[in-house]
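Reopening this ticket.

The earlier resolution said the output was attached, but the attachment link was broken on my side. Pasting everything inline this time so it's all in one place.
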Amino acid sequence: MSKLKKARNLILLLVALLGITILQDYLQSSYQDYAFYFSESLLFNLFWPLIIPVTLILREAFKHSKTPSKWAKRALFVLLATIFHLLLFAFLVHLLSGLFYEQTFRFLGNLSYSLSQDLYKYLLIYTAISLIPFQKSPDSQFPQPIEHPHFLLLSSGKKTEKVPTDSILYLFAATPYVECFTAEKKYLQQGSLKSFAEKLDPAVFVRIHKTTLVNVSKVDSISSRGNGDYDLLLSNGQNLRLSRNFAQDFRSKFEQAPTG
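Inline output:
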């Protein structure tokens, strides 16, 4: 449903509520046998249309809120919406009555009346609204691209070297270490293969076995073993085994990978 259609439906709902509350005022005046004044009933039932601007303003403000708990966020929304609505309604009744009515309803009197008679309505309405999930901001609807490192800091003896990721041929799990191989040397790094897989670009470093990640751009050819597994020939002449369990994912990325 488009935003325009949602807004239209909300306006129609609030107009209907306004009409129902005015009708209720009329029926109550008839039942209790006192005069009914449409203009006053309309003025004090403007409480309902104000829900739209109050909700839109605060939901927009809360869209980028950093409140850690969603329940804390909802509770704060209900509190602020109620206070804002109370003050806005009291001011609006004071302003409109002063401009268009014979009697001016004072701001503090309006505020006191709303607090004593209608506070529960505010709390119930804005609690219900707060339970509607907040719309994500446009930026959050489209995930930002993840920046993968162009180099890793790897240990070589007592030295730590800055190794470009595009020079790495493959990584092998040797618990509790990971062996990182380039064409020139091997680096032994403490950690898990999973931690490296999460850090490196998954379109480049592809799992070919539960213990091995390979730089797909360093693979020159792939040949079947006839049993579902494959042999990969790397650019340095080394062969690695590709397990059948990872073959489909590897082949899809191998077809798209540039040569290294």
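Reporter confirms the inline version is readable. The chain has a mean pLDDT of 87. The beta strands are 151-156, 159-164, 168-174, 177-182, 186-190, 205-209, 212-215, 219-224, 230-234, 239-242.
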